[in-house]
What does this fold into?
Amino acid sequence: MVKKRVHELAKELNIESKDMLHKLNQMGITVKSHMSTLEDSEIVRIRNHYQGGGGKDTANSSPARKDRRGGYKTTGSRDRHDQGPGLVDRVPDRPPDRVFTDKATGRGGEAKYKKQDAQPRVNQNKGNQPKSGQPKQENGRQGKAINERNKAPDEPRAAQNKYNQNRGPAPAYRDRNKPGGDHNRTPGQQRPAKSFDRGGKDSRGGHGLNTQTGAGLAKLAQKVMPDQVKTMEKNKAQERSKQVEKHSFKGKTGKDNRFAKESSKKERDFKPGLNKRSNKGQRKKSQPAPPVEKKPITIGETITVKALAERMCINAGEVIKKLMELGTLATINQEIDADTATIVANELGFEVNIKVELDKETQLMMAEPEDEEKDLITRPPVVTIMGHVDHGKTSLLDAIRHANVTASEAGGITQHIGAYQVEHKGKKITFVDTPGHAAFTAMRARGAKVTDIAILVIAADDGVMPQTVEAINHARAAKVPIIVAINKIDKPDANPEKVKRELTEHNLIPEEWGGDTIFVEVSAKQKQNLGELLEMILLVAEIGEYKANPNRAARGTVIEAELDKGRGPVATVLVQTGTLKVGDFIIAGVAYGKVRAMMDYTGRRVSKAGPSMPVEVLGFSEVPPAGELFYTVEDEKFGKQIIDERFKKKREEELKLTAPKVSLEDLFNQIQEGQVKELGIIIKADVQGSVEAVRQSLEQIGTDEVRVNVIHGGVGAITESDIMLASASNAIVIGFNVRPDVNARNAIETEKVDIRLYRIIYDAIEDIKAAMSGLLEPEYKEVVLGRVEVRKTFKVTKVGTIAGCYVTEGKITRDADVRVIRDGIVIHEGHLDSLKRFKDDVREVMQGYECGITIEKFNDIREGDQIEAYTMEAVKRELA
Ligand SMILES: Nc1nc2c(ncn2[C@@H]2O[C@H](COP(=O)(O)OP(=O)(O)OP(=O)(O)O)[C@@H](O)[C@H]2O)c(=O)[nH]1
It folds into this structure.
């Protein structure tokens, strides 16, 4: 007999382990715990004690033990204990409609299923009968219910008996304990006990199936009926797996739902690691893209749609879509403000931190130190020469240069770098070698204030001319002191007094006449009085106290620049403050680079250039535009960041249509917003009388909020110079019976200057009044279709003058309005009478073709006249 542990035996006997322990103590069997092993003899004693009904210690009596065993097998009341709870409990594990029956061989191990409705358990238990042909015992074992069943119809009983008989000798250990034991079997008898023996060895012992577990039964059944059991097990397994599948599907679905919910609502709460794990399998199947982790994002005051999308790690399209939902149409490169960006990001589930970060440009400006008085030294004045055409500007510049360069510098005189310095009485003067107010104003329009003093050159034999007046006004607009140089005094018809008189009309009154304007009479040709002119320049400079700090990072203006085939981009720069050194990192506009080499105006290499010194600089990445400010920065990386920013801004500006700087249409708004305190106006008219009339009328209509300042007025076509002045001074241009010339038209486009053209002064005054009070209602906008040049005229009786023309620009149409322009002045406005190509009437003639034109009620067409064709388009005013 196999050894058993206390708790096993207790279980077998259906008593508590602790009761068993107690009883063992009482019986003198020493055990430590319920895990202690019992000897065979002890087991028998205990069984006898419990099953023998006595509680009497029979351990030492073998016969009694045998008897006990026999008694046990026949004792109905103890049968149940003998069988233990295991069998009864485990029977339902087996198919209820099947029963093991022995084969003819009677070998339990080869039992087959046999359908038997009523008594599955009984029959099964029959297989466990220790002794064949003992239904009583069986009944006893199975308890009352089974006994009752066994009293049932004979047939089943017979079947049972048959079965029992077929089974052959009972496999009970009792037989083995008999003298001879197993060997007493008859030859025909099967040896089911062997299996039980084996089983006994495997703790099945003499109890046979009593101690079988459910699994054990199944195993046994498998052995016995492999196919059926397998099928059955397979079915079961399928059912189980279905359930498991169902369960797990639910689980998955649940998971998916959770996932979906989370991705829609709480995506920001995702733990990256967790996601990685939990989504690993799913990603392959149903999640094409990994979930976005929604970390709070940080933005500045503005951000482009693209950058915003990148910060959120989402497609820019989603941002654009969201913006559209919010009623904003934006392109990928468009900038949106922080508020809009925040709304969009919030909508997409992102938190936003707005970090107002100063742009690099502002940082650069802020990095500019305020100079202390003690750090400042007097610098040379920077002078520009202006004046009317052919009055001798270039001649004067050359004369000064030749007369005042030192002998050592003479070799470099031919060098032209856009600016040069001369020395007079030990003091230097810097001349900007690009004469003319147009260049001066073009620089000013870029924000460059280079000039300290303007020299107004007027030919003594010619007097004040239109460009003289322009130059005066340009200099005044720049608040630059003017020195008048009356040139060509060597000429016999020179009349300096006349020039002085004319200039008084423009508020330039010589000192000897009680004014404060310095006049110097010179001859560039004869190099007369040049020293005096320089003397006066130094005097004005002294009054102006032009100072700069040479001990700081250099800053200045690009005077001119070009791409040299051998040297790359070459720029002439004027250092205005600090000292520029070779090796400095320099930026100008979007051009940057390390100063590779520097040359002064004589072509000599220099290693540094202080305030007011013009130098040629090599090392720029590209050609910087004239008038651009340059800076040097210590940190190269910072410098490049500024350039990046400038590139971006440049691109944005190119993309958006820049509104006019100041325009009558939005003047009222600009006044309201405090952007405009002064309305600058440039008046151009066909006659001087109109200019003055308009000037006087306009200067009276100023209000408390805005005053009108006529910064320039002149006769003739509107020129590029007028447009540049308007651009630099944030002014509008008003024309009376004049038109802009070709260069001016181009400048209007690029500078976005508002120009207004009138035929009647009253209309101009009314418009400006209305604009100032926000009541301007521009109903029509003029659209110029094209321009035509009159090349020949033919007078035909009854028809009038026919103009043989050539379309120089755009086109002319039969129904167009036309204006006839002579020397920039509008001499007629009306309608076309006829438009012909050869002898045929045509509806339109395109650029590059000839045509014949007659104008309604106008015959004074002359060769060289320009005819401008235009239409008036209605303009819808947008509601504010
Ligand atoms: N007699 C005389 N002629 C002079 C004098 N200065 C200049 N000229 C002549 O005037 C003409 C024009 O001189 P520029 O120096 O070219 O005049 P500008 O103002 O520079 O002319 P633009 O460059 O066309 O604006 C030239 O033929 C000069 O020789 C002078 O002092 N006396």
